[in-house]
Amino acid sequence: xxxxxxxxxxxxxxxxxxxxxxxxxxxxxxxxxxxxxxxxxxxxxxxxxxxxxxxxxxxxxxxxxxxxxxxxxxxxxxxxxxxxxxxxxxxxxxxxxxxxxxxxxxxxxxxxxxxxxxxxxxxxxxxxxxxxxxxxxxxxxxxxxxxxxxxxxxxxxxxxxxxxxxxxxxxxxxxxxxxxxxxxxxxxxxxxxxxxxxxxxxxxxxxxxxxxxxxxxxxxxxxxxxxxxxxxxxxxxxxxxxxxxxxxxxxxxxxxxxxxxxxxxxxxxxxxxxxxxxxxxxxxxxxxxxxxxxxxxxxxxxxxxxxxxxxxxxxxxxxxxxxxxxxxxxxxxxxxxxxxxxxxxxxxxxxxxxxx
Amino acid sequence: xxxxxxxxxxxxxxxxxxxxxxxxxxxxxxxxxxxxxxxxxxxxxxxxxxxxxxxxxxxxxxxxxxxxxxxxxxxxxxxxxxxxxxxxxxxxxxxxxxxxxxxxxxxxxxxxxxxxxxxxxxxxxxxxxxxxxxxxxxxxxxxxxxxxxxxxxxxxxxxxxxxxxxxxxxxxxxxxxxxxxxxxxxxxxxxxxxxxxxxxxxxxxxxxxxxxxxxxxxxxxxxxxxxxxxxxxxxxxxxxxxxxxxxxxxxxxxxxxxxxxxxxxxxxxxxxxxxxxxxxxxxxxxxxxxxxxxxxxxxxxxxxxxxxxxxxxxxxxxxxxxxxxxxxxxxxxxxxxxxxxxxxxxxxxxxxxxxx
DNA sequence: TATCAACACGAAACCGTTTTCGTAGTTTTT
DNA sequence: AAAAACTACGAAAACGGTTTCGTGTTGATA
Lengths: 356, 356
Hints:
The structure is a homodimer of 356-residue chains.
Chain A: H1 2-15, H2 22-29, H3 33-40, H4 48-60, H5 67-74, E1 79-84, H6 90-105, E2 109-114, H7 119-130, E3 136-139, H8 143-148, H9 152-159, E4 164-167, E5 177-181, H10 183-196, E6 202-206, H11 212-227, E7 237-239, H12 247-255, E8 260-263, H13 266-278, E9 288-292, H14 296-300, E10 306-309, H15 312-328, E11 341-344, E12 347-349
Parallel strand pairs in A: 1-2, 1-3, 3-4, 4-5, 5-11, 6-7, 6-8, 8-9, 9-10
Antiparallel strand pairs in A: 10-12
Helix pairs in contact in A: 2-3, 3-4, 6-15, 10-11
Chain A binds a DNA duplex (30 and 30 nucleotides) through residues 21-23, 31-35, 37-38, 41, 44-47, 50, 65-66, 68-75, 132.
């Protein structure tokens, strides 16, 4: 038994090799830590043979600098924080993927926080990360935050000089870079498309106009109706927050005679479609559908849903690019910062739920 | 102009307040850094009034310790790395959400890396994070890694003493904690269910048997057929890797007369369902469907897809719990590590694509 | 031969914490 | 009154790097 322990320990000692540090290399090669550091950076200061010796040794023992130590010294972490309300929704997933892809290509890692629609968790997450863990934030505001209109946690962060990029669900109240899609314009186009195909009583299914995106989409919807000589019937605008159940869609459809629906997300569209089908109406002849978010749901719906591609991947890439630019160009006290808001063009993907 | 610059600078100086450090507090209060540090931790060593003074000052100036410095000192980062092949798929998304939720409740942040099915990116990601950025890994193997059978990057990491939890797509070759579902058993049940409803020619749609999960599901499928006196017709097993297009499903369905399909993911199931519908066959009367992954696609399909809930959230939570346990109970040289593999029970959610 | 660069390297400060240990000053014990 | 024991705090090392600056050694120049 004693014997066995001994064997196991030796085994572990062999297996479990600690990460090697500059100090280890310095000791082993009988040079100073600074020499090792410089040699590994191929500094001109260090002689040829010393460099070769150090580099060979480092390679042999698979030396990699400790990220934390480098971060502490250099005051940047090569991490970016992403705070989103949700991750299961196709749109956010694709944005996240876009961010991760670009960030990774620039040597950054992505820390993901899901606010789950909660103001409090949004605040907590940002506070956790703002204490040195990240170089900047990319975020989409949660619904609760938009409702409260309390953006102090964002201002806090920007005041500390931490770059912030807002996307999708944004606010004018905090000055930072932003990336959005042309919601109003594309909603306008979508509604106009349905009008052109002969639709007259067009409903809007929204998840709440406190979201800037929804507000913009609603504006586009209204303008399209008015521009085409159709008045806006306020009864045809259904607001249904995310967390509420969708039963009111039933009653809405029964109460209102409509011939087209624009939905701000694919879930509402798909849900409404299934009810409409059960009511025995034909899609798109009796009712046309267009939904925001060109996700799997839209692609595989029956009939396939005409939808508005938000180009989440692209948004993510752009957001990450803006953020990393901001992070890497050091802040100049002399110069007034000017923030950009990038707008990505959404595209209407025509499928079977609308008449061409 | 000079005047303007001056105004702007003053404005910025006021706005942009640097994060306060222990040193700042110490200087201001004319005590030592160590005293401040201890006072903030409510150490018994420090006198009542000094503690109060320091704590009040810290609160006033909103002092928060620098995470990076703490990490460097304490040798743990409170970050965990999650490496998954994909993030748009419902299953991975829910697992991720589960991980994030549990991790956050324990004060950990989650760094997400998407390997995108690539062995190389998996390796790169792990190397980036293994240099001190994280305390442990949770990961699902990419398809390429499973294909190559090269797990050196995982062994590398565990050899360095970094805890690792594998989920979903795992391997026996590396010793670590694991969490999976009872794939074989639930596949068995699913197939048997279809047999009981009178189905005889049951196909399996798989995305490649190099995935351990798919292999297990296939085993369950085979056993169910054999157990019920139906032989296994190898022609009825269709293997279609993720990245290939799904056209071969068409030809498969034309070539083989079948009356039920078990698909290892919902996409294949939904895709097959749409083809079957176009062929004019009835679901579930002519062909029944069961798909793994109880995602939105399954819920909103027409007809709604009977599916196998993998309980991604739960898997994520369990994985995170196992990892954090491992991280926080310090490693004991004397004691042999014993790894657990937790198995979560999957559930068959009956809907309209099968006969009850 | 004295002077001066250039070269090659090391000492030390620093990033912001934590933690051990030492020590004045005060109180208690004998 | 001397010894012992607290009390309350500070100095300093440590975590693992980066970087500035100083310096001993060389070879070239005057």
